[in-house]
Amino acid sequence: MTDNHKNNAIDYIEFNVNDIAKAKEFYDSAFGWTFTDFGPAYCEFNDGQRKGGFAAFDGDIITSGPLVVLYADDLEQALKNVTNAGGKITKPILEFPGGRRFQFTDPQGYELAVWH
User: pTM surpassing 0.70?
Assistant: First the structure.
C-alpha cells in the first residue's frame, strides 16, 4: 500500500485503549487488520486502505464521538465476524437509502458501524 495523503482529508484515526493486545486481537479476528508495534504504548493498524493507531491509556476512555463506519462486501459475514470476535451488536442490520448497515461496540466500548 502506498501512502496517499490528501490535503484537508481525514488521514488517520486513533483509539485510546486500555489493552492494546485485546484491541489487536479483536480487529484482526473481526476484520483482518494488520499491525505495527511502536513500543508497549502504541500500535499502528492498517486496514488495507487507511492507517490508524491504538494508544495505551490508563484512564477512563471516552468512547463517544464521531461514528467510524467500515465497509464490507458481505454484511452478514461481517456481522458474524464481529460477534465471533467479541463485539456486541448495538443496532442490527437495517436498510437506509444508500444500502444497509449495523452498529457494534468493540471490547473497549467504541461504537462503530459496518455498511454495504
Answer: yes
